[in-house]
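Thread: guanosine-5'-triphosphate complex, take 2
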Amino acid sequence: MDIPENERQPAALVGLNTGADGLHFEKSMKELAALASAAGFRVSGVFTQNLQKPGAGYYIGSGKIEEIRAYLGMTGIDLVIFDSQLSPTQLKNLSAALGAEVLDRTALILQIFGGRARTREAALQVEYASLQYMLPRLTGLHRELGRQAGTSGSMSSRGAGEKKLELDRRRIESRMAEVRRDLESVGREREIQRKRRAGSGLPMAALVGYTNAGKSTIMNGMLREFGEEGERSVFEEDMLFATLDTTVRRISPGGGKKPFLLSDTVGFIDNLPVPLIRAFRSTLEEASLADLLVIVTDLTDPDYRENLEVTVKTLSEIGAGGIPRLFVFNKADLADRGKDIGISVPCVSAEDAKITISAKDPADIARLADEIGRCVNRGRIFMRLMIPYSDGAALASLRKTSDITVLEYTEIGTLVEGALTESDAGRYRAYSAGT
Ligand SMILES: Nc1nc2c(ncn2[C@@H]2O[C@H](COP(=O)(O)OP(=O)(O)OP(=O)(O)O)[C@@H](O)[C@H]2O)c(=O)[nH]1
Ligand SMILES: [Mg+2]
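Output below.
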């Protein structure tokens, strides 16, 4: 992944400013450069054009195309990356007009995901999304492949080309069906794991947020402080989309505090390509099953407010809109903005819990664990119960689901005090021993 800067393939970037929102355009271009470098390219020239509406055929204007072409000719660069998703026609036309390989934002993100997938599920999800992206763009890609292979006249005659195209199309479709089947079987395994987790009776908190916000660093901090012996840490790195799968770990803060499950998953980004959202649905949906969303933000990112909006929007798109939220403003060691957090971010409301931390500071990790514990136990009911020895099952079940603070074996039964879930409180009301 760490190719030295001067050995990376150079690429020119092209962005279209439709004038709707200049700030957003700037951020989008900055992000495109970060994505290009995450995919292993070196950004060389950057071209922008102000146009109210992208052209249907060529996306940008003919003058701009000429300008870029001249630049490519002069520098010998043969890769051009566009800031949004291009239609199959635009892709085909631009690659012909520029005489270069053309990638759009979607292809770029797909490429990054492809290089990062570690688990079988992630690899299958990325493959599916890539095939889906390729299918309507085969003609454009073919032209590209044909040229690269230096195919000579007779071989690339129109008839042969079309037959090959049809063959490729069918091959891709059948591979897609295969991948879909494999994904379904992985999905069944995931379902079993989910059931097992639900059966543990432990509340689940999900780390979510923009890519590179520090989710995996928090997970590892938690594992170091409160993880079970021998549990593996997760991959954390200063790059976009370091994490592509979901890891769930049990966190036991100790000191009479109830353990909880914590999940770490793939990060969000503005305009995450639709095929990827679809392909990663099952991974992203883990968040929609959580009792608490721990929304992590990088305070040092000047765009952290916009990133939060994107995160909140994506969460509601995957059906996690109604889950209680804890906003974590991270990397406080690098930023001196502790004061203004949460005040001017419209998507953070008064009901949301908030905390500012540095994921690198063990004391902050402990504070965060406390806060998560408090949030996942919110809505619980404090009760004092006398459980007769004849109902051993009740005690066993309560131990799993409740935050028990007192437990005494008396002559008439077991005295239990603790925070019960609402349903347990109803179920065991008969054993109530006053408060
Ligand atoms: N100084 C400092 N660096 C941090 C902090 N939290 C995370 N980082 C760094 O930020 C980078 C990204 O952290 P990750 O934990 O990989 O981010 P992530 O949210 O899991 O990112 P993706 O998996 O790509 O979505 C890493 O280089 C971390 O070491 C923090 O509180 N302070
Ligand atoms: Mg991560």
